[in-house]
Every structure is written in structure tokens, then in C-alpha cells.
Design a protein that fits this description.
Blueprint lengths: L3 H21 L3 H18 L9 H11 L5 H20 L26 H9 L6 H16 L3 H5 L6 E2 L4 E5 L5 E5 L2 H16 L20 H15 L6 H14 L4 H8 L4 H4 L1 H5 L1 H11 L4
Antiparallel strand pairs: 1-2, 2-3
Helix pairs in contact: 1-2, 2-4, 5-6, 5-9, 6-8, 6-10
Length: 297
């Protein structure tokens, strides 16, 4: 039988879970990760539970993790614990927050992976230009690159969100923030060909999900990752994920002279600092411009 401490901790986790889902609107992926992180933290605390957790205990937990877990994962775990204690204080379940003043582990920032224009051309041409599934996959790849969508935004698209006349799609991003993103002519044409083939095959296209699996259900993010792996291999391009096409979208816009704040809006980034990673990717172009233009380069 669970002890009083265990019951209290379970109640706290359940309340925080509901808060993340209904008020913070975190993604299912983040929710799963936070649940796992908090379960690991509780296991580390042992019999004392959340009630006896203090800054020293949390620091000790972080030291135990260091060297065995990637620093990005440690930072996420600490974010989960911080969020939990902040919620407990704000909801009156705890008097103080032991995470205040704790430093987040410093991370080596990796440059976003991106494809060259040649890589993109080969990848987009890899799916066959006939058949519902081939046309679907080509439309998926075109849209990921053309609009810089997150894969969750792509799989969440309904036909009602596509405005072919305006050349845009309406997507629901992180935190359930809605934005309208322009879509290029090749991607719109790929969507139109896929829609026509799907309608001819009896697949519903008047409403509901844009991208469906072979059984007619909404395509999942995992399925998109699998089909992209297939076409990356078939095209002979460098290893890439759906998110790499989002990075490629931003990198190519920046390389063509697009304003960083405009790219921020297109990507749906909450802060400009997230978008600024792409300035490092394009450093070679900036150095070339410097060498050409500066009189004492």
C-alpha cells in the first residue's frame, strides 16, 4: 500500500501533468519527457519524497547525472523539476521553491543541420510522381522545406488550414500559438496533385487531415520521420530528419538576405535568440562578403 508521502507525490504529479496539458499546452512529446524525468527524480529522492527535496538534493542529483546523460537532457530534466516546484508553490502546495538560484548546465551549442540546394533538389524528386502515397510523400517534403514547418505542425494540418488562393497555410505551433505561413508555388502544386489523386482514390479531401496513412488515419510524426529516412536513402543525400528541412528553410532564407526577425516570425520562434543560431550556419557567406567588400580584408 502506498505511503502518505507517495500518495501526496502522486497527487502533485497528476496536478502538474493536468496543468501542463490544459494551461501550458505543451506538446505530447514534451509531456512524455517531463513525466519520465520527474519519475526519475522521485526515484532518486527515495522515501523522503518531494516534501523533503531541497537545493542540495537537487544539486546532488545533477552531479549524479553529469557524465552519464547528455547535458541537453540534464537541462531538460532540471526544467521539468523547476516547473514542478514553481507550480507547487503557485498552487499553494509548497511554501518555497528549492530550484531558485540553481544554475542550468552549460551546453555546447550544435549548429543546426541543413542541406545544400542540390541535396534538397534530389530529396524532393525522390518520391514517385504518381500514386497517392508517392504524391503524398512528395507534398510532405515540399511543404516541410517550403514553409519551414515543425513536423507536428505538418501532421496537424487539416484541409481547412490550406489557403491555395492566398498561398499560405495556418498552423498551430508550440503553446498552441497560431500563425499563417506562406507556401511556395512548387509546394502548392504538389499539394494539388496529391489532393486530386487522393480524391480519385476515394480518400476524403473536403475536410479532415491533409496527410493520411494507408488506413485513412492522420499521419503521425513518427511516420513522417520514417518516410523521410526512406527518401533520404533513395536520393543519396546526407542523413537528414524532417527537422533538418526546417533548418534548411531558415538557412537558405538567411543566405538569400532575408531579415532575421522575419525568419523568426515564419518559424514561430518565441525569442530571436533561437533564430540567431542560423547566423552561425551562414558564417562562411558573411566571411566571403567581408573578403570581397572590406578594403583591408
Amino acid at each position: 500500500m502506498p505511503t502518505r508521502t507517495q500518495r501526496a507525490d502522486e497527487e502533485a504529479l497528476a496536478a502538474y501533468d493536468a496543468h501542463l496539458r490544459s494551461e501550458r499546452h505543451v506538446s505530447p512529446h514534451t509531456l512524455r519527457a517531463y513525466r519520465t524525468d520527474l519519475r526519475q527524480f522521485l526515484a532518486f529522492l527515495g522515501a523522503g519524497g518531494l516534501a523533503r527535496a531541497d537545493a542540495d538534493a537537487i544539486r546532488h542529483w545533477l552531479r549524479v547525472l553529469d557524465g552519464t546523460v547528455e547535458r541537453a537532457s540534464i537541462a531538460r530534466k532540471l526544467a521539468a523539476v523547476r516547473g514542478l516546484f514553481r507550480f507547487l508553490v503557485e498552487s499553494g502546495r509548497r511554501a518555497s521553491d528549492p530550484t531558485i538560484g540553481l544554475a542550468t548546465p552549460k551546453m555546447r551549442r550544435k549548429l543546426p543541420a541543413h542541406l545544400t540546394l542540390d541535396d534538397v533538389d534530389r530529396l524532393l524528386a525522390a518520391p514517385p510522381g504518381d500514386g497517392v502515397l508517392g504524391l503524398r510523400d512528395r507534398a510532405i517534403l515540399e511543404l516541410l522545406y517550403s514553409a519551414g514547418l515543425r513536423v507536428s505542425e505538418l501532421t496537424g494540418l487539416d484541409w481547412a488550414d490550406v489557403d491555395a488562393a492566398a498561398g499560405s497555410v495556418r498552423v498551430l505551433g508550440k503553446g498552441r500559438k497560431e500563425r499563417v505561413v506562406p507556401v511556395g508555388r512548387p509546394a502548392l502544386a504538389a499539394l494539388a496533385r496529391y489532393r486530386a489523386a487522393a480524391a480519385e482514390a476515394g480518400v476524403p479531401v473536403a475536410a479532415g487531415p491533409v496527410f493520411r496513412n494507408a488506413r485513412g488515419g492522420r499521419l503521425t510524426s513518427r511516420s513522417v520521420a520514417r518516410l523521410m529516412t526512406r527518401w533520404v536513402t533513395a536520393s543519396g543525400t546526407t542523413r537528414a530528419t524532417p527537422h533538418a528541412l526546417r533548418h534548411t528553410f531558415a538557412t537558405h532564407l538567411l543566405g538569400a538576405g532575408a531579415d532575421l526577425r522575419a525568419i523568426q516570425e515564419l518559424l514561430g520562434h518565441a525569442t530571436l535568440s533561437t533564430t540567431q543560431r542560423y547566423t552561425h550556419v551562414d558564417l562562411r557567406r558573411l566571411m566571403d562578403a567581408y573578403d570581397r567588400a572590406h578594403p583591408r580584408a
